[in-house]
Amino acid sequence: MPIQHCIVHAIDKTGSDQPASLKPANAELAPSALLEELLASFHDAYHAKTKAWGHFIAESDDPHETVAEFASDLAGHLDGNSDFVAFTRAAAERLLPVIDAHLSVSGHLLCVDYRQGETHYFAAALLHQREGVGVTDSLDIVPARQLNLARMSLGLRINLTQWRDGAASRHYLSWIHDRGGKKLSEDLAGVLGATEGIDATGETRTLLKAFSDYVEQQDMPEEQSREQTETLIDYANEQAGRGEPITLEALSELLDEQQPKAFYDHIRNADYGLSPEIPPDKRTLRQFRRFTGRAGGMSISFDSHLLGSSIEYDESQDRLIIKQVPKQLKEQLKKRQS
């Protein structure tokens, strides 16, 4: 991930009763292997977070919405009207009220412009430090401070390539939206002039529902069903780890090489209302697994997210209660009774 520009500004927040102040850097950081390592660590931490996905309000069809200064400044910087130091300093100053309102500790605002493959990105995050211990070359134990990336609660990333190319995407911008940090996320979106363009959690759930319906309609053998489930989860998690969306056509091709359009056609024909590209929600993906079992001529397989809704397990009497019997099975049972 070649770094084009990188800078760190200090944010001093000594307590909840003191306003945050900015100590700006005067120059960019020189590219180095250490910076590349930091960017890779930031990627891992950021993509593990729950995020909101959207776009700048300037891309909205609502004529009454105004463009935030952040998007204008970013466009101006990319057009060569300001350098990276000036642009990021202005951005840091705009973030001070958000930090004042929601955070009580100091931090360092990392701003980085970089490329990943052919895609151009800008990312920013408020990083905090934690106290630790280290060992010197003379084998002495000494205090050592290090960045605590897992604690990151304010961060954003913009796919500049999609934004500047005028692509139809409505999710080229993402920002951290952790549980318990809803107001922080909303205020950050306000500073950015951003609005959510896609519900990543809802879209991921709908995709998994579409997949469950597909498996049921295809009446797949248990082993094939398990393999396709793992393929879906592996692909979705890989995309989430890269910060990239799930592409429905690519997923369909992975699920069945012999019929690469089968799952894609199922989604379109059933009109699930899914976007062609879906930012994966990792929390929802973690909840999706298939329970399977076979004994005495009986084979049972169902998606784990159905447990507690369509399917209940009564441990005291060792019973599974199925509330919504699959249509094909229901028809077979009716014929048997008649």
Automatic annotation (TrEMBL):
Xref: Pfam families: NA37
Task: List the gene name.
Answer: yejK
Q: What is the similarity comment for this entry?
A: Belongs to the YejK family.
- Alphabetized PANTHER family for the sequence: NUCLEOID-ASSOCIATED PROTEIN YEJK, PTHR38772
Q: What name does the UniProt record give this protein?
A: Nucleoid-associated protein YejK
Using the UniProt record, give the first listed, main subcellular location: cytoplasm
InterPro entries tied to this protein: Nucleoid_associated_NdpA (IPR007358)
Q: Does the keyword Cytoplasm apply?
A: yes
Superkingdom: Bacteria
The UniProt keywords, alphabetically, are:
Cytoplasm
Where does this polypeptide localize?
Cytoplasm, Nucleoid
